[in-house]
Amino acid sequence: MRTSLFRFRVAAWLPAFVLGFFALFLSSCEKEEKDTTDYAARDEATIQAYIADNKLTGFERQNSGLYVAITQPGTGNKPTKDQLIVAKYKASLLDGTVFESNMNTLGTFDFDFGQGKNAGWNEGFNLLSKGSKATFLVPSPLAYRGASNSIVPANAVIRYDVEVVDIIDYAVRDEATIKAYIEANKLTGFQRQPSGLYVAITQAGTGDNAKKNQTVAARYKGTFLDGKVFDSNTTAAAPLSFVVGAGQVIPGWDEGFQLLNKGSKAILLIPSDLAYGARGAGPIPARSILRFDVEVADIK
Protein backbone atom coordinates (compact mmCIF):
# COMPACT_ATOMS: atom_id res chain seq x y z
CA MET A 1 0.00 0.00 0.00
CA ARG A 2 2.54 2.54 1.08
CA THR A 3 4.52 2.27 -2.09
CA SER A 4 1.51 3.27 -4.17
CA LEU A 5 -0.45 5.75 -2.08
CA PHE A 6 2.48 7.66 -0.62
CA ARG A 7 4.11 10.13 -2.93
CA PHE A 8 7.18 9.09 -4.84
CA ARG A 9 8.68 9.98 -8.15
CA VAL A 10 9.15 7.48 -10.91
CA ALA A 11 10.94 7.99 -14.20
CA ALA A 12 8.55 9.31 -16.86
CA TRP A 13 7.90 6.82 -19.65
CA LEU A 14 9.68 7.40 -22.88
CA PRO A 15 9.06 5.87 -26.30
CA ALA A 16 11.31 2.90 -27.03
CA PHE A 17 13.07 4.90 -29.72
CA VAL A 18 14.03 7.59 -27.24
CA LEU A 19 15.06 5.04 -24.62
CA GLY A 20 17.36 3.50 -27.17
CA PHE A 21 18.91 6.84 -27.87
CA PHE A 22 19.20 7.53 -24.15
CA ALA A 23 21.06 4.29 -23.53
CA LEU A 24 23.40 5.00 -26.40
CA PHE A 25 23.90 8.51 -25.12
CA LEU A 26 25.00 7.20 -21.73
CA SER A 27 27.42 4.77 -23.30
CA SER A 28 28.94 7.48 -25.47
CA CYS A 29 29.36 10.19 -22.80
CA GLU A 30 33.08 9.53 -22.38
CA LYS A 31 33.70 9.98 -26.10
CA GLU A 32 31.56 13.12 -26.27
CA GLU A 33 33.53 14.77 -23.49
CA LYS A 34 36.61 14.63 -25.75
CA ASP A 35 34.76 16.04 -28.75
CA THR A 36 35.48 19.79 -29.08
CA THR A 37 33.32 20.35 -32.17
CA ASP A 38 30.98 23.35 -31.95
CA TYR A 39 27.88 21.50 -33.13
CA ALA A 40 25.61 24.50 -32.59
CA ALA A 41 27.63 26.54 -35.10
CA ARG A 42 27.98 23.62 -37.50
CA ASP A 43 24.26 22.86 -37.37
CA GLU A 44 23.34 26.52 -37.85
CA ALA A 45 25.27 26.58 -41.12
CA THR A 46 23.85 23.19 -42.16
CA ILE A 47 20.25 24.27 -41.53
CA GLN A 48 20.67 27.55 -43.37
CA ALA A 49 22.16 25.73 -46.35
CA TYR A 50 19.37 23.15 -46.28
CA ILE A 51 16.70 25.89 -46.35
CA ALA A 52 18.43 27.69 -49.21
CA ASP A 53 19.15 24.58 -51.27
CA ASN A 54 15.55 23.38 -50.99
CA LYS A 55 14.07 26.85 -51.50
CA LEU A 56 12.09 26.56 -48.24
CA THR A 57 10.23 29.55 -46.86
CA GLY A 58 8.49 30.64 -43.69
CA PHE A 59 11.11 29.48 -41.21
CA GLU A 60 11.75 31.50 -38.07
CA ARG A 61 14.85 30.92 -36.02
CA GLN A 62 14.31 30.62 -32.27
CA ASN A 63 16.92 31.80 -29.78
CA SER A 64 17.81 28.18 -29.07
CA GLY A 65 18.78 27.55 -32.71
CA LEU A 66 15.57 25.68 -33.55
CA TYR A 67 13.96 26.62 -36.87
CA VAL A 68 10.16 26.48 -37.14
CA ALA A 69 7.91 26.99 -40.16
CA ILE A 70 4.17 26.92 -39.48
CA THR A 71 2.63 25.65 -42.71
CA GLN A 72 -0.96 25.66 -41.46
CA PRO A 73 -2.19 27.84 -38.62
CA GLY A 74 -4.34 26.26 -35.97
CA THR A 75 -7.08 27.60 -33.74
CA GLY A 76 -7.31 28.33 -30.05
CA ASN A 77 -4.61 28.65 -27.46
CA LYS A 78 -1.17 27.14 -27.45
CA PRO A 79 -0.66 24.14 -25.13
CA THR A 80 0.12 24.63 -21.45
CA LYS A 81 1.08 22.51 -18.46
CA ASP A 82 -1.37 19.71 -17.59
CA GLN A 83 -2.48 19.31 -21.17
CA LEU A 84 -2.09 16.37 -23.53
CA ILE A 85 -0.90 16.98 -27.07
CA VAL A 86 -2.15 14.54 -29.72
CA ALA A 87 0.12 14.56 -32.75
CA LYS A 88 0.89 13.16 -36.16
CA TYR A 89 4.52 13.42 -37.28
CA LYS A 90 7.27 12.32 -39.62
CA ALA A 91 10.90 12.36 -38.51
CA SER A 92 13.65 12.43 -41.12
CA LEU A 93 17.30 13.25 -41.71
CA LEU A 94 18.18 16.15 -43.96
CA ASP A 95 18.99 13.72 -46.77
CA GLY A 96 15.32 12.68 -46.74
CA THR A 97 15.72 9.40 -44.86
CA VAL A 98 12.58 8.82 -42.77
CA PHE A 99 13.28 7.03 -39.50
CA GLU A 100 9.94 7.45 -37.71
CA SER A 101 6.42 8.29 -38.85
CA ASN A 102 2.78 7.83 -37.93
CA MET A 103 1.44 9.93 -40.79
CA ASN A 104 -0.05 6.91 -42.56
CA THR A 105 -1.29 5.00 -39.51
CA LEU A 106 -4.50 5.20 -37.51
CA GLY A 107 -2.68 5.96 -34.29
CA THR A 108 -1.31 9.20 -32.92
CA PHE A 109 1.63 10.08 -30.70
CA ASP A 110 0.20 11.48 -27.46
CA PHE A 111 2.44 13.23 -24.94
CA ASP A 112 2.13 15.56 -22.01
CA PHE A 113 3.16 19.17 -22.53
CA GLY A 114 6.94 19.43 -22.28
CA GLN A 115 7.50 15.66 -22.30
CA GLY A 116 7.88 14.87 -25.98
CA LYS A 117 10.75 13.32 -27.92
CA ASN A 118 13.47 15.88 -27.26
CA ALA A 119 14.06 19.53 -26.37
CA GLY A 120 13.62 20.80 -29.93
CA TRP A 121 10.37 18.88 -30.34
CA ASN A 122 9.03 20.30 -27.07
CA GLU A 123 9.99 23.86 -27.94
CA GLY A 124 8.41 23.61 -31.37
CA PHE A 125 5.09 22.28 -30.11
CA ASN A 126 4.93 25.12 -27.60
CA LEU A 127 4.42 27.43 -30.60
CA LEU A 128 1.49 25.51 -32.09
CA SER A 129 -2.24 25.23 -31.44
CA LYS A 130 -4.90 22.68 -32.36
CA GLY A 131 -4.94 22.06 -36.10
CA SER A 132 -1.49 23.52 -36.70
CA LYS A 133 0.92 21.93 -39.12
CA ALA A 134 4.59 22.78 -39.03
CA THR A 135 8.13 21.78 -39.88
CA PHE A 136 10.87 21.81 -37.26
CA LEU A 137 14.56 21.76 -38.11
CA VAL A 138 16.20 20.65 -34.91
CA PRO A 139 19.96 21.13 -34.38
CA SER A 140 21.70 18.18 -32.79
CA PRO A 141 22.16 19.79 -29.31
CA LEU A 142 18.35 20.01 -29.13
CA ALA A 143 17.84 16.52 -30.60
CA TYR A 144 19.89 13.41 -29.77
CA ARG A 145 23.42 14.85 -29.56
CA GLY A 146 26.01 12.10 -29.86
CA ALA A 147 23.58 9.19 -29.65
CA SER A 148 23.12 7.13 -32.77
CA ASN A 149 21.61 3.96 -34.20
CA SER A 150 21.80 2.11 -37.49
CA ILE A 151 19.82 4.84 -39.27
CA VAL A 152 20.42 8.06 -37.37
CA PRO A 153 24.07 9.13 -37.08
CA ALA A 154 25.53 10.88 -34.08
CA ASN A 155 25.01 14.65 -33.89
CA ALA A 156 22.40 14.63 -36.65
CA VAL A 157 20.12 17.56 -37.48
CA ILE A 158 16.54 16.27 -37.40
CA ARG A 159 13.55 17.39 -39.46
CA TYR A 160 10.06 16.91 -38.03
CA ASP A 161 6.91 17.46 -40.07
CA VAL A 162 4.14 17.62 -37.49
CA GLU A 163 0.42 18.16 -37.06
CA VAL A 164 -1.41 18.96 -33.82
CA VAL A 165 -4.50 16.75 -33.96
CA ASP A 166 -5.82 17.84 -30.58
CA ILE A 167 -4.90 19.47 -27.30
CA ILE A 168 -6.69 17.98 -24.31
CA ASP A 169 -7.04 19.74 -20.98
CA TYR A 170 -6.86 17.05 -18.31
CA ALA A 171 -8.92 19.02 -15.80
CA VAL A 172 -11.78 19.34 -18.28
CA ARG A 173 -11.50 15.71 -19.33
CA ASP A 174 -11.43 14.45 -15.75
CA GLU A 175 -14.38 16.62 -14.74
CA ALA A 176 -16.51 15.22 -17.56
CA THR A 177 -15.39 11.65 -16.81
CA ILE A 178 -16.20 11.92 -13.10
CA LYS A 179 -19.64 13.39 -13.77
CA ALA A 180 -20.39 10.62 -16.25
CA TYR A 181 -19.20 8.00 -13.74
CA ILE A 182 -21.47 9.37 -11.00
CA GLU A 183 -24.46 9.42 -13.35
CA ALA A 184 -23.82 5.99 -14.86
CA ASN A 185 -23.50 4.38 -11.43
CA LYS A 186 -26.44 6.34 -9.95
CA LEU A 187 -24.26 7.65 -7.11
CA THR A 188 -25.56 10.39 -4.83
CA GLY A 189 -24.32 12.75 -2.16
CA PHE A 190 -21.21 14.00 -3.93
CA GLN A 191 -20.00 17.54 -3.42
CA ARG A 192 -17.48 19.02 -5.83
CA GLN A 193 -14.61 20.94 -4.27
CA PRO A 194 -13.04 23.94 -6.08
CA SER A 195 -10.00 21.77 -6.86
CA GLY A 196 -12.12 19.28 -8.83
CA LEU A 197 -12.14 16.66 -6.06
CA TYR A 198 -15.53 14.98 -5.52
CA VAL A 199 -16.42 13.79 -2.00
CA ALA A 200 -19.47 11.86 -0.77
CA ILE A 201 -19.70 11.22 2.98
CA THR A 202 -21.46 7.87 3.34
CA GLN A 203 -21.29 7.66 7.14
CA ALA A 204 -21.09 10.60 9.51
CA GLY A 205 -18.39 10.62 12.17
CA THR A 206 -18.01 12.52 15.42
CA GLY A 207 -15.87 15.44 16.53
CA ASP A 208 -13.90 17.92 14.49
CA ASN A 209 -12.63 17.30 11.00
CA ALA A 210 -8.97 16.44 10.58
CA LYS A 211 -6.69 19.45 10.33
CA LYS A 212 -3.28 20.04 8.83
CA ASN A 213 -0.42 18.48 10.80
CA GLN A 214 -2.73 16.05 12.58
CA THR A 215 -2.16 12.32 12.16
CA VAL A 216 -4.99 10.35 10.60
CA ALA A 217 -5.33 6.58 10.74
CA ALA A 218 -7.31 5.36 7.72
CA ARG A 219 -8.78 2.25 6.18
CA TYR A 220 -9.20 2.44 2.42
CA LYS A 221 -9.76 0.68 -0.87
CA GLY A 222 -8.44 2.23 -4.06
CA THR A 223 -10.01 1.40 -7.41
CA PHE A 224 -9.97 2.62 -10.98
CA LEU A 225 -13.26 3.78 -12.42
CA ASP A 226 -13.68 0.40 -14.11
CA GLY A 227 -13.88 -1.17 -10.65
CA LYS A 228 -10.43 -2.80 -10.65
CA VAL A 229 -8.83 -2.64 -7.19
CA PHE A 230 -5.22 -1.46 -7.23
CA ASP A 231 -4.66 -1.14 -3.47
CA SER A 232 -6.44 -1.81 -0.18
CA ASN A 233 -5.77 -2.14 3.54
CA THR A 234 -9.27 -3.12 4.61
CA THR A 235 -8.04 -6.46 5.94
CA ALA A 236 -4.67 -5.28 7.25
CA ALA A 237 -3.83 -5.58 10.94
CA ALA A 238 -3.48 -1.82 11.33
CA PRO A 239 -4.80 1.21 9.42
CA LEU A 240 -2.52 3.50 7.45
CA SER A 241 -1.31 6.56 9.39
CA PHE A 242 -0.18 9.80 7.77
CA VAL A 243 0.19 13.48 8.65
CA VAL A 244 -2.49 15.57 6.95
CA GLY A 245 -1.23 18.34 4.69
CA ALA A 246 2.42 17.28 4.94
CA GLY A 247 2.64 15.96 1.38
CA GLN A 248 3.03 12.37 2.54
CA VAL A 249 0.06 11.29 0.44
CA ILE A 250 -1.46 12.40 -2.84
CA PRO A 251 -3.09 15.86 -2.87
CA GLY A 252 -6.59 14.38 -3.19
CA TRP A 253 -6.10 12.62 0.15
CA ASP A 254 -4.61 15.66 1.88
CA GLU A 255 -7.66 17.67 0.81
CA GLY A 256 -10.31 14.99 1.20
CA PHE A 257 -9.44 13.93 4.72
CA GLN A 258 -9.72 17.51 5.95
CA LEU A 259 -13.45 17.16 5.22
CA LEU A 260 -13.77 14.08 7.44
CA ASN A 261 -13.86 13.38 11.18
CA LYS A 262 -13.28 10.31 13.32
CA GLY A 263 -15.52 7.41 12.39
CA SER A 264 -16.65 8.90 9.09
CA LYS A 265 -16.71 6.96 5.85
CA ALA A 266 -16.54 8.54 2.42
CA ILE A 267 -15.92 8.08 -1.27
CA LEU A 268 -13.26 10.26 -2.87
CA LEU A 269 -13.24 10.64 -6.66
CA ILE A 270 -9.85 12.12 -7.40
CA PRO A 271 -8.95 13.74 -10.75
CA SER A 272 -5.54 12.84 -12.11
CA ASP A 273 -3.90 16.16 -11.20
CA LEU A 274 -4.72 15.46 -7.54
CA ALA A 275 -3.49 11.87 -7.83
CA TYR A 276 -0.36 10.82 -9.73
CA GLY A 277 -0.64 13.16 -12.71
CA ALA A 278 1.54 12.60 -15.73
CA ARG A 279 3.87 10.07 -14.11
CA GLY A 280 1.63 7.44 -12.61
CA ALA A 281 2.91 5.16 -9.85
CA GLY A 282 3.41 1.40 -9.77
CA PRO A 283 0.22 -0.22 -11.07
CA ILE A 284 -1.44 3.18 -11.57
CA PRO A 285 -1.09 4.49 -15.15
CA ALA A 286 -0.36 8.13 -15.81
CA ARG A 287 -3.37 10.44 -15.77
CA SER A 288 -5.63 7.99 -13.95
CA ILE A 289 -8.76 9.16 -12.15
CA LEU A 290 -8.95 7.27 -8.85
CA ARG A 291 -11.73 6.24 -6.51
CA PHE A 292 -11.02 5.70 -2.83
CA ASP A 293 -13.54 4.29 -0.35
CA VAL A 294 -12.14 5.46 2.99
CA GLU A 295 -12.83 5.30 6.70
CA VAL A 296 -11.25 7.49 9.38
CA ALA A 297 -10.24 5.13 12.18
CA ASP A 298 -8.62 7.81 14.33
CA ILE A 299 -7.33 11.40 14.40
CA LYS A 300 -4.54 12.52 16.73
CATH topology descriptor of the largest domain: Chitinase A, domain 3
CATH architecture of the largest domain, by name, is Roll
Number of strands: 16
Mean pLDDT: 90
Which shape, going by the Cα principal axes?
A: elongated
The sequence of SSEs as H and E is HHHHEEEEEHEEHEEEEEEHEEE
Query: Which secondary-structure class do the elements indicate?
Result: alpha+beta
Span of the ends, CA to CA: 21 Å
Instruction: Give the CATH level 1 class of the largest domain.
Output: Alpha Beta
Q: What is the helix fraction of residues, given as a range?
A: 10-25%
Low-confidence stretches: 6-30
Let me know the largest β-sheet.
7 strands, antiparallel
Rg, alpha carbons: 24 Å
- Count of DSSP-assigned helices: 7
Beta-strand fraction estimate = 25-35%
* Total domain units: 2
Descriptors:
single chain, 300 residues, alpha+beta, Chitinase A, domain 3, 2 domains, seven-stranded antiparallel β-sheet, 21% helix, 32% strand, elongated
